[in-house]
Specification:
Elements: H1 11-14, E1 16-21, E2 24-30, H2 45-60, E3 65-74, E4 83-94, E5 97-106, E6 109-120
Antiparallel strand pairs: 1-2, 2-4, 3-6, 4-5, 5-6
Protein backbone atom coordinates (compact mmCIF):
# COMPACT_ATOMS: atom_id res chain seq x y z
CA UNK A 1 0.00 0.00 0.00
CA UNK A 2 1.21 3.50 -0.85
CA UNK A 3 1.41 6.28 1.75
CA UNK A 4 -0.81 9.23 0.67
CA UNK A 5 -0.44 11.62 3.60
CA UNK A 6 2.22 13.58 5.47
CA UNK A 7 4.68 12.97 2.63
CA UNK A 8 7.09 15.73 3.70
CA UNK A 9 7.40 14.58 7.32
CA UNK A 10 10.96 14.36 8.70
CA UNK A 11 11.21 10.62 9.37
CA UNK A 12 14.31 11.08 11.54
CA UNK A 13 12.14 13.01 14.04
CA UNK A 14 8.74 11.35 13.56
CA UNK A 15 9.68 7.78 12.68
CA UNK A 16 9.46 5.80 9.48
CA UNK A 17 6.59 3.69 8.23
CA UNK A 18 7.53 0.01 8.41
CA UNK A 19 4.07 -1.47 7.75
CA UNK A 20 0.98 -0.02 6.11
CA UNK A 21 -2.36 -1.57 5.28
CA UNK A 22 -6.03 -0.54 5.25
CA UNK A 23 -6.73 1.11 8.62
CA UNK A 24 -3.32 0.20 10.06
CA UNK A 25 0.15 1.70 10.23
CA UNK A 26 3.31 0.74 12.06
CA UNK A 27 6.04 3.32 12.65
CA UNK A 28 9.56 2.80 13.96
CA UNK A 29 11.18 5.73 15.78
CA UNK A 30 14.88 5.48 16.56
CA UNK A 31 15.49 7.99 19.34
CA UNK A 32 18.39 10.40 18.88
CA UNK A 33 20.59 12.54 21.13
CA UNK A 34 18.79 15.68 19.95
CA UNK A 35 15.56 14.26 21.47
CA UNK A 36 17.04 14.23 24.99
CA UNK A 37 15.35 16.32 27.63
CA UNK A 38 18.16 15.91 30.17
CA UNK A 39 21.72 14.68 30.71
CA UNK A 40 20.48 11.16 31.58
CA UNK A 41 19.05 10.72 28.07
CA UNK A 42 15.33 10.88 28.81
CA UNK A 43 13.52 11.38 25.49
CA UNK A 44 11.12 14.34 25.52
CA UNK A 45 7.55 13.06 25.28
CA UNK A 46 6.79 15.37 22.36
CA UNK A 47 8.83 13.15 20.07
CA UNK A 48 6.84 10.08 21.12
CA UNK A 49 3.60 12.00 20.64
CA UNK A 50 4.74 13.18 17.19
CA UNK A 51 5.47 9.62 16.10
CA UNK A 52 2.11 8.47 17.49
CA UNK A 53 0.31 11.24 15.59
CA UNK A 54 2.17 10.18 12.43
CA UNK A 55 1.06 6.56 12.96
CA UNK A 56 -2.55 7.71 13.37
CA UNK A 57 -2.44 9.86 10.23
CA UNK A 58 -0.87 7.02 8.23
CA UNK A 59 -3.52 4.55 9.45
CA UNK A 60 -6.19 6.85 7.96
CA UNK A 61 -3.95 7.52 4.95
CA UNK A 62 -5.82 10.35 3.25
CA UNK A 63 -4.06 13.47 1.93
CA UNK A 64 -6.49 15.72 3.83
CA UNK A 65 -6.54 13.97 7.22
CA UNK A 66 -6.07 16.20 10.28
CA UNK A 67 -5.97 15.61 14.01
CA UNK A 68 -9.07 16.90 15.80
CA UNK A 69 -8.47 15.65 19.34
CA UNK A 70 -6.35 13.22 21.29
CA UNK A 71 -6.24 11.54 24.67
CA UNK A 72 -2.85 10.09 25.55
CA UNK A 73 -1.03 8.40 28.37
CA UNK A 74 2.73 8.12 28.87
CA UNK A 75 3.30 4.81 30.64
CA UNK A 76 7.09 4.42 30.84
CA UNK A 77 10.13 6.54 29.98
CA UNK A 78 12.05 6.21 26.74
CA UNK A 79 15.82 6.63 26.65
CA UNK A 80 17.98 7.97 23.82
CA UNK A 81 19.10 5.15 21.55
CA UNK A 82 15.99 3.02 22.04
CA UNK A 83 13.74 2.03 19.14
CA UNK A 84 10.07 2.71 19.66
CA UNK A 85 7.50 0.76 17.65
CA UNK A 86 4.15 2.50 17.28
CA UNK A 87 1.05 0.81 15.95
CA UNK A 88 -1.97 2.79 14.81
CA UNK A 89 -5.28 1.00 14.20
CA UNK A 90 -8.60 2.50 13.18
CA UNK A 91 -11.08 1.38 15.84
CA UNK A 92 -14.10 3.41 14.76
CA UNK A 93 -14.99 5.10 11.50
CA UNK A 94 -18.02 7.04 10.36
CA UNK A 95 -18.49 9.59 7.64
CA UNK A 96 -15.33 11.71 7.53
CA UNK A 97 -14.14 10.89 11.07
CA UNK A 98 -12.01 8.03 12.36
CA UNK A 99 -10.78 7.11 15.80
CA UNK A 100 -7.30 5.62 15.79
CA UNK A 101 -5.81 3.82 18.77
CA UNK A 102 -2.03 4.05 18.94
CA UNK A 103 0.22 2.02 21.20
CA UNK A 104 3.99 2.34 21.50
CA UNK A 105 6.43 -0.23 22.78
CA UNK A 106 10.15 -0.51 23.47
CA UNK A 107 11.37 -4.12 23.64
CA UNK A 108 7.73 -5.31 23.89
CA UNK A 109 7.12 -3.04 26.92
CA UNK A 110 4.29 -0.54 26.47
CA UNK A 111 5.51 3.05 26.90
CA UNK A 112 2.61 5.06 25.45
CA UNK A 113 -1.02 4.69 24.47
CA UNK A 114 -3.44 7.10 22.91
CA UNK A 115 -6.69 7.64 21.12
CA UNK A 116 -6.64 10.06 18.20
CA UNK A 117 -9.80 11.50 16.66
CA UNK A 118 -9.11 12.38 13.04
CA UNK A 119 -11.12 14.15 10.38
CA UNK A 120 -10.77 13.91 6.62
CA UNK A 121 -11.47 17.27 5.01
CA UNK A 122 -12.67 17.93 1.46
CA UNK A 123 -9.59 20.04 0.75
CA UNK A 124 -6.33 21.01 2.44
CA UNK A 125 -6.86 22.66 5.85
CA UNK A 126 -4.84 25.73 4.76
CA UNK A 127 -7.14 26.36 1.80
CA UNK A 128 -10.40 26.39 3.76
Amino acid sequence: MELKTHLKIDTSLNGKIIALSEGYAQVELTTLDLMAADAQGLVHGGFIFGAADYAAMAAVNDPYVVLAKSSTKFIAPVKVGEKVILEGKITEQNSNKATVTVSATVHDKEVFMGEFLTAVLKQHVLTL
